[in-house]
Description:
alpha+beta; 16-stranded mixed β-sheet; 11 helices; 16 strands; 33% helix
Amino acid sequence: xxxxxxxxxxxxxxxxxxxxxxxxxxxxxxxxxxxxxxxxxxxxxxxxxxxxxxxxxxxxxxxxxxxxxxxxxxxxxxxxxxxxxxxxxxxxxxxxxxxxxxxxxxxxxxxxxxxxxxxxxxxxxxxxxxxxxxxxxxxxxxxxxxxxxxxxxxxxxxxxxxxxxxxxxxxxxxxxxxxxxxxxxxxxxxxxxxxxxxxxxxxxxxxxxxxxxxxxxxxxxxxxxxxxxxxxxxxxxxxxxxxxxxxxxxxxxxxxxxxxxxxxxxxxxxxxxxxxxxxxxxxxxxxxxxxxxxxxxxxxxxxxxxxxxxxxxxxxxxxxxxxxxxxxxxxxxxxxxxxxxxxxxxxxxxxxxxxxxxxxxxxxxxxxxxxxxxxxxxxxxxxxxxxxxxxxxxxxxxxxxxxxxxxxx
Length: 409
């Protein structure tokens, strides 16, 4: 068993039900069902909300919930969700839905420039009973009929004591400029009734005392791994310590398998990951590239009893700058389900990287690559020092003359 039980500030909660959701087809069905069933409160955070068919369906269901008396609070990121039509906002506002925008900024010459220190979390809690956590945004590019650029991604549905932690965090984020920095999990055992047998820990990342919280949990589990590690992550460019832990695990006999994008939505992400391939395969790490569609997942499993799903990539933006949230799970059935799906991905939908074909590079590349690595790894943090990234949150309000209703499709 992977032992990460030493004090972390984040409690493991017993008695939870946890279900893996793959892609938008599974995620949106459960998210919309939770919204429709809510009687008291709906809290949502998402990096991206677009006025496409998913965003319009969410709009319709949130308006209906608010009109039956449910408190509805939605937080979106000002970079990921940069613009809404007056009609879209008016429909929400007229029904009583409160739409918050994290770190809003006007476009400069039509461009979005404030890319660093974003609110990247994807969380939903309904009636403090059901929670959804993962990497899936409210946008149509997460469903297959979007076409060849539809994303492959994952989330989890949770029920049980850990939901109170996620709910408390979301409530605190609403009164702390969206950061949630001041949130503290309740001490002792949660009082909610058990709903299953899974142990679950909710871990947010911020830019204060929890700046390395998610990376720390990954690395503890990797160092404790006995026979298997599978990491599937869209954007992979972690620090030297993380890479060292993976290499050490492989060299002590742990089978380490990594799944990255082979058809990336941003070419720089694949180029950055590929720059690490030689360093990894020399230690015996197995690398697979998912080549059917853009891979957007942020999941991992270790041995038979540890897994994580969330919003955090393993790159400088997620590990050093963005506001993120993952759940960590100890449950053999959940790990088996995730393993089955990832094995199917590797066997039938990925291209294995042949270590013999990974270039070793020249002498000068061996000299300059470490310098380039550290510059790329630190650049977002250096850029993040700019004062423009001070966290703030504002209510999104329609123009005074906007008519309630859906945005045009």
